[in-house]
Structures are given as C-alpha cells and as structure tokens.
Design goal:
Layout lengths: L1 H17 L3 H12 L4 H7 L9 H38 L17 H15 L3 E2 L5 E3 H4 L24 E3 L5 H9 L4 E10 L10 E11 L4 H15 L6 E8 L2 E10 L16 E10 L1 H6 L8 E8 H9 L12 H4 L4
Parallel strand pairs: 1-4
Antiparallel strand pairs: 2-3, 4-5, 5-9, 6-7, 7-8, 8-9
Bound molecules: phenylalanine.
The site of phenylalanine has 11 residues, from strand 8 and strand 9.
Length: 339
Amino acid sequence: MKEKLDGIKRAALAGIEKAEVFQDIADLKVKYLGKNGEISLIMRDMAKVPKEERPALGKLVNEVRNEVESALELKGNMLERKEKEARLKAEAIDITLQSDAHRLGSLHPLTRVRRELIEIFSGMGFKVAEGPEIESDLFNFQLLNIPKDHPSRDMQDTFYVNDNFVLRTQTSAMQARIMTTSEPPIRVVIPGKVYRSDDDASHSPIFNQFEGLAVDEHITMGDLQGCLTTFAKKIFSEDTKIRLRPSYFPFTEPSVEVDVTCSMCHGKGCRVCKGTGWVEILGAGVVNPAVLDMCGIDSKKYSGFAFGFGIDRIAMIKYGIPNIKLLYENDMRFLAQFN
Ligand code: PHE
C-alpha cells in the first residue's frame, strides 16, 4: 500500500514536471485528485488495511495529496500566466502602423500670400475692394487712358468677350471704377484674377494681381516709394531694398518699374535674379492727371499713386517656385509642401 502510494506520488510529480500547457495540469488534477482519481481511490482501499496501520497510512495519503495539490497549483499558475502573456502579445495592436486617414489640408500658397498682403496694406490704412472679372472696355482700358485702337493696347494680349467686354487684363480696371464712384481721400487695394493670352514658365493665361491706389491732396512719388519700401520689407525680409526705374504706363505719369533685392541671395546674385541681385516685381507711378479728370476727380486739387503686381510672382519669389503652372495644377504633392 505504502509502495503503491509512493509510486503514485512519483508518477504525479513527474507528470506535473513534464506538463507543457495548462490543459495538462487540468488533466492531471482529474487523474489524481478527481472523484475517481488515483489518490481518492486509494482512500477507499483503506478498509483492507489492518486497523492499527490506518492512522499512519491516512496521514501519509494526506501528505501526498497536499504535496501533489500544491505542485499542481504552482505549475498551473505558471503555465496559465505564460499562456496569457503569449495571447496578449499575439493580440496586440501595432499603434506605430501608418494610417492613411485624415490628412490635414492647408492654404493654397496664393491664398496665403494674398492674405499676408491684405494684412500688410491694411496696416497702412488701405481698404480692400473686389471687382468683376468680365469687365467693360471702358473701365479696363478707356478710362485708364488707353483709347480704342491705340497702340498701347498691344501691351496686354486681351481675351475679348465682344466689342465692349473683355476678361479683365488688369486689376487697374478697378481704379477707374473706384475713382468714378468715390471721393478722395482714397486708399484701396484690389486683389483679383486677371486674364491674358500669354503662356510660358512665368506667364499663365489666368493669374492673380494685387492693385493699390491712393488719391488725396499732396500725394507724391515719395509716398509711393515709402509705401512700397514698407511692403517689400514686410513681405520678403527687413533687409530688402527697392529701386525705381523709369517706365511707361498710359495711366501713370511718371511711371516706374520697381525691383527688390533678391530674397534668395540677398543681392549677391543667383539663379532667381539671373545674377543681377535684383528682381522686378511691379509697375507703378503717379496717377496720370488725365485719368483723374476722366474719372471725375479734380486733378488740380488731388494727386495719387498706383501700383500693381502679380501675387503669383510674389509667391514664386517667396517660396522659390520655378514655374507659375504649379500654382494652378492642384497637384497635391506640390500643395502639401505648404502645410
Ligand atoms: N496694370 C499694370 C499691369 O498690369 C500695372 C500697374 C498698375 C502699373 C498700377 C502702374 C500702376 O502691368
């Protein structure tokens, strides 16, 4: 009996030792400690044992039962923990995996520059106005001192809608609209789309202009120069300088073309400024007295300055964009860079 019990104990402990998964432990528990388990059955054999040996043997059976029980529990806990860990590991979600949802949009570079320009000129007291893109010949040309059939019309390749209407070639058209409808003092900037039959790396048939007009008593070229110097420093950088070169526009007299020191090389000469250190950015001048008079403003009392430039050109210089077409193609790879 005692030997039999010993054998059961050894077999049980060896079985527990070899158990590899939790289920093995559960099976062993049934095999040895279950209702018909080997240790339980041996208790029933107790009747066959002589009376005087029973207490000692009973104690021994209890000891073996306890020993097997705690060995089962120890190994069982260990295997259970191990299996749980493995399961968690297998089920884990990889939070470092890229998701392709929700890409944040960004402002178009032209929108950014336009907003920045409005901010700058608002700071100098200018209001903002907008006008129609299909414009009458009167506002786009005639009131700006560009009569029908005059050679100066050739300066801008125009899309004609009919004899009297064009796709506006310049935001200057709004100068005439504003001067015919309001009294000085006038300080206004006009952002907007314009159209010309022109197409290469730096010209698009549709582009964006930004016009400025100031009309008041005693306005001079000096005011224009001061205003544009402030603008250039704010939009490019504090060390930016401007220079004025004589030019010609029918609606300003005198007229100038304005260059800024290259913001890429700061005047040293590079690809952007073609080695000159300067980039041309706009046309401007003192409002031609003939234009004031045509628009119903007394040129003996008032004078003004006007300027106009391409928002596209400013964006191209500011961000080093080599081709104007990039601004109109809506290529996400290009636009995403302005996040
Ligand atoms: N409208 C002119 C152009 O498109 C620019 C300009 C505006 C020149 C105002 C002088 C004054 O080229």
